[in-house]
Amino acid sequence: MAKNLVIVESPAKAKTIEKFLGKDFKVVSSFGHIRDLPAKKMGINIETGFQPEYEISADKKKLVSELKKLAGKAELIWLATDEDREGEAISWHLIEALNLPKEKIKRIVFHEITKNAITEAVKNPRDLDVHLVNAQQARRVLDRLVGFEISPVLWRKVKPRLSAGRVQSVAVRLIVEKEEEINNFKPESFFKAKARFILVKDGKTLLEAELPKKLKSKKEAEEFLNECIGSTFTVEAVEKKPGKRSPAPPFTTSTLQQEAGRKLGFSVAKTMLVAQQLYESGKITYMRTDSVNLSSLAINTAKQTIIDTYGEAYSKPRQYKTKSKSAQEAHEAIRPTYIANSEIEGNSDQVRLYDLIRKRTLASQMTDAKLERTTVKIDISNSKEKFVAKGEVIIFDGFLKVYTESTDDDDNNEDQKGLLPPLSVGDRLKRKNIEVVQRFTKQPPRYSEASLVKKMEELGIGRPSTYAPTISTIQRREYVEKKDIPAKTRSFTTLRLTDGQIEEIIQKEKYGYEKAKLVPTDIGIVVNAFLMENFGDVMDYNFTANVEKEFDEIAEGKKVWNDSIGRFYVPFHKGVEHSLEHSEKATGQRLLGVDPKSGRNVYARIGRFGPMIQIGEAEDDEKPAFASLLKGQSISSITLEEALDLFKLPRTVGSYEGEDIIAAIGRFGPYVKHKNKFYSLPKGVNPMEINTEQAIAIIKEKIQKDKEKFIKEFADEKIQVLNGRYGAYIKKGRKNYRIPKDKDPAALTLEEVNEIIENADKAPKGRRKTSTRKTKKK
DNA sequence: CAGTGAGCGAGCTTCCGCTTGACTT
Question: Do strands A735-738 and A727-732 pair parallel, antiparallel, or not at all (unpaired)?
């Protein structure tokens, strides 16, 4: 038995560290936090200074008892959790939950997983930092109070099962306000002049130049072109300036999510999933980090790799500083474990993400790119304006050899600059043609998942481990949805001057297409308005930054955590009570008009199950009629006509095999019903318009699929053996059962099946319950 | 999963941050 027990947070880390420490050390993992507030209740005693009632998390019970056993046998226990607020708290919870005696505890920290860093850490143990632990408790308690006091207000005032929180509600606010900004945006048009010249000297060299000034109107554009008609054009100045471009720092969680989104088209969740796989197979360092720091080992191997591959001239070792104030820097930047490895084994997603991480890491250790920027000014004899041509040449590529960072801007290809032809002052230019093209100011782009993460990081809201889950939460709660914004069409005018004639051309262009952007739903808009009205303090973009300052002071021992929470809680709780008593139900209700059939009012509003249309009032003698909005419809934009259309469902489509086919919309979307069976309609198929032929095709297809799923059945017992996503399974009534791997599904006897069912039903219920809950949440 | 919707009311929902498997249909 090893004399020393080391506890870290991550099992992959434990494996690596054990190699460095030798046989006297056993390294195990806590798998993150082991204790937390109870899942289903507040768990905070407000009277006794917000004392938390911690519980060992359900999924950690087994682990904790194992750790207890190991700790009992060890002489020394080294708590090597991360050096940040949460890590310190994990160590403290370990001490409490495992009942570790003080004299057996050593607290050690390191920021990089290198042999040097670990052995140094073991030589320099310290005491547990109680103040840092208290800062974490304050953070935890604050988040619980905010989440568990505001959410129930939403259940009463908006809709059950909704949620609010310090992080998610502000994320939704960002998206709602972006949409408002876009709605209020009025595009302005202006005119941009572009000229094509031929160098008189040789009669063939082509030069393109632009008028930097925006021309405000068509009239102004015409005036300018008229000035150009009789003008001579002369090169007035040629200016050359050296320029440089520097590489971006190595990846943090947030920048990795942004770049993987832009370059590979990964969602934030997918990036994290693939990164986790790379981490677990030892190919990259830890993927949840806010640090741009590289270990000296990494900097040295990167240097060697760059020199070996590209030559000395490309190497420039750099250490980057984190800009973000909220960074806790417990880990290194995300980088390959072995930087020299240019290729890895793995699926294509893993290979592509690894490649991105490796190139970014290498580039960060490479020299600047050197550029030469040339600006040519062209005099127009009859105008005080000047044309300008800009060129850019890369003299030395430096880091650009391996990596260029992408931007969120819609690719502005017009600005692409290249090499300019050699020109001298005084050179005469002949005008080939001049075009003045109508342009429009652009509305701000909506947030993508990754650009939202970027914004949240700027505001200090959320942490590397929560960016991806938060984005899932606000979509799962149906506050926002991710969708493609279709392009719109508009016409624009071009005035073209060739020879002495000005010609007017009107063309059409598409604009405004956006892919996979976050857009608020009706519920998101209503909830946000409600929270802004009633909980403005928590919704403030600076709220997190301010409480973080408070937490820092607690961590420094300057403030007592319970007092800090108390100062927040008293007015906050009053606000909760006040809004429970006084605020109206928030339904986002909009009167659409009057139903011509019944003469009753038609409203769009949020109901128990989401956005819907209501005809008539609840107080009327006759019960109101209800219908859910379709996907893509919204309370703010639906018309009376569209609303009334919703009541045409369910409708009889036609008949098939002697029975009616009914089309309608249910809890899970549009469907057709035939012989009492439901068939979901695929995306884009409108239940209002579907015809008999289409419906029959859908029904037949489903029947065919079910046939493929079918393996065998015991009809008397109502038991079926079916093929599913995860292989064969047994279905009895509504319940599903796994088939043991050593059994051939097709050969199962009724006896065997019943045995499997009995065993599964007997099995400990705890597990079953949590698993069913998880699937429900989806 | 199963195709609702008012109102009645029981009983439920909910936070953020740290980490992965066990399990799913």
Answer: antiparallel
Q: In whole angstroms, how far apart are CA A374 and each of A199, A249, A420?
A: 17, 28, 8
Residue A172 CA, chain-centre distance (Å), reads 12
Rounded CA-CA distance A492/A439 in Å is 7
Q: Residue A56 belongs to what H/E stretch?
A: strand A55-56
Position A493, amino acid: T
Closest nucleotide to A760: CA versus each C1': B23
Q: Is A545 exposed, middle or buried (0-12, 13-18, 19+ CB in 10 A)?
A: middle
Q: Which two tokens stand for residue A261?
A: 């989104």
H or E, element range at A480: strand A480-485
For tokens 């493609």, the residue is A484
DSSP lists the bridge partners of residue A490 as A509
Beta strands in A138-284 (DSSP E): 189-199, 206-210, 233-245
A514-520 and A488-498 beta bridge pairing? unpaired
Kind and range of the H or E run holding A592? strand A590-594
Q: Two tokens at A87?
A: 């890590």
> Helix-strand-coil percent breakdown of chain A, rounded to 5?
40, 25, 35
* CA of A129, C1' of B16: distance in angstroms: 21
Encode burial over A584-622: b for 16+ CB neighbours within 10 A, e otherwise: eebbbeeebeebeeeebbbbbbbeeeebbbbbbeeeeee
Give the pLDDT confidence score for residue A617 in this predicted structure: 86
**A660-669 pLDDT, tens digit each:** 888 887 777 7
Sign of CA dihedral A626, A632, A635, A641: negative
The DSSP output letter for A419 is: P
A635, A522 Cβ separation under 8 angstroms: yes
- Active-site annotation holds for A286: yes
Which residues are A501's β-sheet partners?
A498
Write the DSSP assignment of A612-670 as a string of letters: EEEES-TTSSSPPEEEEPPTT--TTT--HHHHHHGGG-SEEEEEETTEEEEEEEETTEE
Nucleotide with C1' nearest the A330 CA: B18
Task: Tokens 């003299």: give the residue.
Answer: A395
Kindly state the helix (H) or strand (E) to which residue A504 belongs, with its residue range.
strand A501-511
Distance, in Å, from the CA atom of A162 to the CA atom of A150, rounded to the nearest integer, reads 10
User: Taking a C-beta distance cutoff of 8 angstroms, is the pair A606, A588 a contact?
Assistant: yes
- Let me know: does A176 contact A403? Beta carbons within 8 Å: no
Q: Can you give the distance from the CA of residue A751 to the C1' of nucleotide B11 in angstroms?
A: 39
A266 is written with which tokens? 């990964």
A117-154: per-residue pLDDT in tens?
999 999 999 999 999 999 999 999 999 999 999 999 99
CA of A351 and C1' of B9: distance in angstroms? Answer: 56
Give the other-Cβ count within 10 Å of A28's Cβ.
Answer: 17
Give A745's DSSP letter.
G
A419-427: average pLDDT: 94
Q: Please name the residue that has the structure tokens 């607290």.
A: A107
pTM value is 0.90
d(CA A626, CA A614): 5
Cβ-based neighbour number of residue A509 at 10 Å? 12
Please count the residues of chain A.
778
Distance of CA A716 to the CA centre of its chain: 50
Enumerate the β-bridge partners of residue A518.
Answer: A482
Closest CA to A328 of A12, A109, A78: A109
Chain B footprint bases within 7 A of protein beta carbons: 1-7, 12-25
Q: What is the pLDDT of residue A414?
A: 46
Q: Tokens for A476?
A: 């799962």
